[in-house]
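Example 3.2
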Amino acid sequence: MIYVRYLADLHVHSHFSRATSDHCRPRPLAAAAARKGLTVIGTGDFTHAGWRAELDAELVPAEDGLYRLREAGRDASEAQAGGDARRYGDGDGHGCGYGDGDGDAHGHADGQRTSQSTGTRRAHNARATAREGMRAGAPADVRFLVTGEISCIYKQDGRTRKIHHVVLVPSLDAAARISAALEARGANLEADGRPIIGLDSRTLLALVLDTEPEAALIPAHIWTPHFSLFGANSGFDTLEECFGDLAGEITAYETGLSSDPPMNWRLSALDRLTLVSNSDAHSPDRLGREAIEFEAPLSYQGIVEALRGKGGRVAGTIEFYPEEGKYHYDGHRACGVCWHPNETLAAGGVCPVCGRPVTIGVLHRVAELADRPEGFRPAGANPYTSLVSLDEIVAEALGAGKASKHVRETTDKLLDALGPEIPLLRETPLEDVAAVAGPVVAEAVRRVRHGEVSYRPGYDGEYGKLTIFRPEERRELSGQAALFGFALSGAGRSDAMAPRATDRHHRHRGADLGMEGALDGMTEDAAAQEPELELAAPRAVARQLNLAIVGSSPPETAPSWLEGLNASQQQAVTARKGPVIVTAGPGTGKTRTLVQRIAFLLHEGVAPETITAITFTHRAADEMRTRLESTVGRGAERVHVGTFHRFCAEVIGEALGAPPLVLDEREAGVLAAEAAASVAAARGTKRIAAPAEAFSRLKSRGLLPGDPGVPSALAEPYRRYQELLAAAGAYDYDDLLLAALEMVQNDKRVSRVARERATHLLVDEFQDVNPVQYQLVRTLAGDGRNLFVIGDPDQAIYAFRGADRRFFAQLSADFPSATHVRLTVNYRSSDTVVRAANALMPAANATAARPGGQLVRYVAVDAPREEPRAVVREIERLVGGTGMLAADRHGQEHPTRQFSLGEIAVLFRTSRQADPIEQALLAEGIPYRSLGQRAVLATPAVREALDILRCVDRPTDLRFLIALRDTRFNPGAEALGMLKARAATGAATGPAAAWAGNQNVPLAEVAAALVREDCLPPDARVRIKALLDLLAELGALAPTATAADLLLRAAPPEAATSSRALRQLVRAAQDRSLSEFLFRLATGQDADHESREDLSRPGEGVTLLTMHAAKGLEFPAVILVGLADGIVPWKDSLDGEALEEERRLFYVAVTRAAEELVLIGPPMEGTCENVAGCESQNRPQGQSQGQSQGQAEPAPRLWCRPASRCRSYARSRFICELPSDILKLIDAAADTGKAARRKSIPLQHRLF
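Structure, written as tokens:
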């Protein structure tokens, strides 16, 4: 095994990452690496499929696990790339303006420390040979190692964590497998080369190692405040807190641009890890500003083993001066406050200008966590070299801009004459530099080697500024060339030159720089005498700046199960005279009260088998069951907890002796359409529209085909539909309720069994019952003494499904002696949110257990098309930015706390509004999850997989026909016609009229016979046989396989990676049998398909859902979008009871918010008398604040424009009912404009 010395930069980005140069492509990157003196560079961004395809096209395997450029066109491309490598900025010498970690957006390179004796370096021939090899590099000699950076944003231990990770893998194939595993977890890898995912760091590490055991994960730029392992804003205090039991798998860490090795040496916990430095380059000319020097085999395994300390070694690092990093000091950029950590402590961490906490910088954070004094150097610590980029040195020496022609020409001349940049800056004799570029440039190089630079430290996202010469020095040196020449000749090598005197903002680190013996023997006691940051109370300021988060639920139950309940809750739980009717407003502990009621019954000696708790969604039933088990423990599993439809299916199963065949919405729709079509054809009339929905509405009212209330136009199609169901021996969603009610009322055996199970009946969300459900409850409840119902008529929002809130009052009329309890203390929402809710529903008269709260934000946008972008901006604000530029921008606002992505929900009135929001989030790379089963089940891949699996679970002719006709196995019209003709002869049968025949032979067997007879068209025969083979294969697996596995096998082969909806449904199907999974889909409501993992760990992303689907959920931060009249309230519901239901829907949406509520909608029209902050309030029409008579009228505020300009897009009438003192108005267009103006000039210089 051959060990060689070489430089590597493993943290790089491609042009697929945000705010990167378009030159971040393989050949320009290789050319820039050769120009810098790098042998190995990371590819970056391996999670992006487009980049992997580009790498596959441009690279070929080289040494084990490494790649090189393809030979084709090599000479021409290298010549072109070599020229381009000198000018990758925007023409002014700046690189990309995006900063990951500390500062890719930087126009200069942050150099850091070390000067080594050239004589020492060349003492060994092997090292000299390696150095010469690095000098001779060409683009074709550069090696690529497959790497990527992954950003995790999640909630852990009560705080939002935002951590970046660099992942190394041995091949593009391994990169594709890890990417597929991430996509299977719902990650969006298409929007950004450095994706944002909602997994925690430990889960990411486990996923990477499970997928590719030879991979390595390195925590990136570990001190950056916003996105790092130890970051002050969103990081941890220890490696173990972040990675848990897998912390031992982490063997290296990346310092980041705002820290250097001596700062990291102060933490003994890092001693076992290998310190590395990389550039995090977003443009080719930023490559190598930090790098790793390896002494190891040139291979993937050689590099990884060196990082693990198991073979080869990291011999040192190239460093950036940390003072130039944009997070080195503490401060407030917006206020112009830049502080040393001691100044921050003296001020209590509070900005004197705005009175808010300052941003804690890297120097401060290191001192907080350090257990060693400044100046301590661990035994065996590697040397490091601090450098400034060559073009910046030349610019300083010449007193010109880096983009100037003189600087470019001088830089090119140096590189052409003396070789790659890093070896030139580290070891080329100064006489040689002076001979090519003059003595002033040589003196600048000498000063950088010795750390003799002045600096203005960076802080709060503001880059620092390094200075090599004062203007008078430059003039003096330029005029004294002869004297400088004498100094050069007298001193010989650069290491002989005396350092300059230093002051507070002047660095000289000669003692650190390559003089291996200078500090190696320094003891703890000796180091303690060195100057040190005076941080007497570690972590104090950071902890002071974290706002305590109040829980959104009542206090946890103490060992006595009644403790923690308020008086009203206790009254409801312990009431002995039934029925008990509990009105529970939002956030008042409804589910907890119901669970404790069951606990009370068990405590009173009631047998668990006689208790039935019914709710409306499988999700709510799962939550209730989990809470009950944790509350009462043993015996909880014998309590019957489920939905109305599960209870009814079990009643029917008891009567039939087998589970009923339940058709889902798709199957029922096929039969309903066929029934309507057959009747229309027989009558010669037009077919009725949406027959399945029409029949469902009739059934929810308890109406059968022959009942008087059925419209004449529907009676015959409805009758035919019921005949088809009966022929199939099947029940649709509504039939379960009707059939169960009929059996309970008329079948004594079934009635007895059902009543025994529901001796004590508890019903959740009682305001949502329809007439059939109410009759079922009344029948089971008997005299009502053991009946307990809980709900809130003010949250009745399902009238379109047949629900009727009046049954709440009807129950009181039916049982005049019922016990009534009202829960009004909201434990979920802040006082501000509760006041907004009370304004919409005054009769609720709720009180908040959590005082205060953030003002409700109303974000005014100019048109519906601008709403998705406003949603993205608000999400960025709530999380404190998902990227470095956003973090800097939103850091200026100093929010009271940062939310994780999983704590944020975006609610809208209709599912159709979701599409543009999803597109906006995809474009920004923000992870999200969509709740609402209809959209997921309607996607082609999911629909096809379910069509096939239904036929596997309970084969019927209808199901086989759907699986054959509506999937990839469709054999075409001719083959379907032959199958239909054979079935019609009596050889097979189907429940549909067009396929009617004798009930003898299943349709699948008829198809198999046609295949055997070889009488089908060839392609059709292949397709039908393939379906039959797949059904047989899945049928054999079904008894033991999970629904998740079967879904993946049934779906089109490419869907596992291409279909986000399929991946979401697969997660929901984990650990469920096929029958149970299909039953939940057939009888579930919105969000019932959501996986248990997604519900228990919502950090996967922002939640998108309709206002209806949000019922029963809560989120720390809620964004309500589309608040325009005609949407909220809906255009067809603008008066009477329909308008009141719209009001209740908005009330439900508002009360989902626990801490922060954001409203997005049209601008306010005219004078906004109800809205605080509107500049037209209490002033004459057209006069703005600060405008006196005679002054020119300024442009009106967006929310104050005349109504005539907003008629087609007007704010919701409900907004005007909110109290004026709780609203904060945000002009989105004005904010966007200001942001654009603010960043247009400086950021363009940095970006491109």
